[in-house]
Amino acid sequence: MIIERAQIITNRKLAKDIWKMKFDTPKIAKDVKGAGQFIEILTTDHWQHPLRRPMSIASFGEGVVSIIYKLFGESTLRLSQKRPGDFLELLGPLGNTFSEWNNDSYPILIGGGVGLAPILNLKYACDHHNIEHTMIIGAKNAEEHFIRNEPNNQIFLTTDDGSIGEKGTVMGPLERIALSNTNVTIYACGPTAMLKVIKSFALDHNIQAQLSVESYMGCGVGLCQGCAIHRKNSTINERSYHEKFSLVCVDGPVYDAREIYFG
Amino acid sequence: MREKSILADLKVSIGKELFENPVWVASGTFGYGTEAPELVDVDRLGAIVTKSITRHPREGNPPPRIVETPSGMINSIGLANIGVEKYIKDLLPIYEGLSTKVIMNIAGTDIQEYVEIIEMMESVSSVLIGYEINISCPNVKKGGMEFGVDCDMTATLTEKLRDITERLIIMKLSPNVSDIASIGVSAENAGADAVSAINTVVGMSINAKTGMSDIYTNYGGLSGPAIKPVGLAAVHKLHQKLEIPIIGIGGIVSGEDTAEYMLAGATAVQVGTANFRNPGITENIIDSLTLYLNESNRSSVTELIGKVHTYS
Fold first, then answer.
1. CB contact under 8 A, B64 and A223
2. Residue A179 Cα, gap to closest chain B Cα (Å)
3. Catalytic residue numbers of B?
4. Surface-to-core class of residue B123, CB atoms within 10 Å of its CB (0-12 exposed, 13-18 middle, 19+ buried)
5. What is the CATH number of the domain that holds B237?
6. What are the pLDDT digits (tens) for B248-281?
7. Residue A92 pLDDT more than 60?
8. pLDDT value of residue A244
């Protein structure tokens, strides 16, 4: 992990309140190990906001890292006002990655809301390695989607109001596809409510699932101990020293569904 | 004219210890000093104060534990730590290899716990040069804070610890009291080598949109630049009453902040929340403090201590 002052290459709106920013950041890009990792962005040099903002890496390679972010508050609004050529200070890459898939297992990639970023990153990896897979993306309505609904290419969109793709949550396509294949692995990132349902589905059907979780985060490197999540046992104790809690920044953000509790 | 090319002397002493510079890292904001070797050269620091250790490991408080607030943050970690045995086994050997000075922060729920921890530490050989005694954590239900708000309890605890160690004893004071100087005097009279001030200020954060409290324990410790004025006032008040050195803490992010704390009366400072933004920020602070001293034509950082100009 390093701190790098990175130049913004592009910063554009993808859908309602969803933006993508691309950085020229050779040192960090070179260090990225895979989908799931994140960076911490200093959104202002002023101390009115002392903490960086964690953002999942949506793609990386050839000196470039991109993020997808949702306008949520003052900090993300400030990000959206940045222009190509501006600089931002990044810390990264941080956290762990989705584990390597095994060849016998069919990957189902699920992204909810802005949780799409690491899932897209994983999709690039699947495409690159010619691994057949399904991707399911959920959002509230068509305005929030920026990917095309292509059921024939195994890309399924869902919306709460049915304005594009299937009406309902990601669970519709997930149940259908997961239960019609004998050996699948779920890779998911999104709001806690979504991960909670996916977790219990996976456990009920004895399906492997790797979940990238959200947590309010401070330093991103294990110093502040702020981003704790309830853990099920001590088998994944790496750097955060705890048995009951795990620090998402150093042990996560990707966990086996069996290893964590959602409060 | 003083020769500009000669860098100002940053050395300061506390008790029998001489520190290369007055910029330390505060307990609980730098882990055990081993977390981010890529981002900071700990050997450049005046000292590291390691995360609070209790007799037995503690899991800490459930999430949410932190939230950013204007120019600061609130935390309620709840003294999550590995316990003394693991500290001795895993960390002391690592500290052997550092050239910076290491101070162990200790927390307990009663006097016996503090005594037991120091007895255990004194029974093994280590490079530790001292103990910072946390009598001021706002985030644990029992103990901690109760010592920090009571002069007699502070004195009794300090005396007991003084009896069992020759190493530095630094009592870490709470700002959540009506008269911080009187607590400092109690610590000094009972044999403390120094006091550090301030620990975090009790605070709360509420999300108007959801109506929820932002922290699981509701109240947490406010830190960061937001509390710098509180820390400066505490250090200045302590300096009026104490002979022993004061270590200033609270919202320090730059060399100038360090200078301000020293002008108020601090002999050294600890950098806390700023480490969360940049674990290597203390190195920048040391550089900018050197620049400040050279530009203000001072040959030693000690020339700053307590030299604030006041109106009365």
1. no
2. 34
3. 137
4. exposed
5. 3.20.20.70
6. 999 999 999 999 999 999 999 999 999 999 999 9
7. yes
8. 83
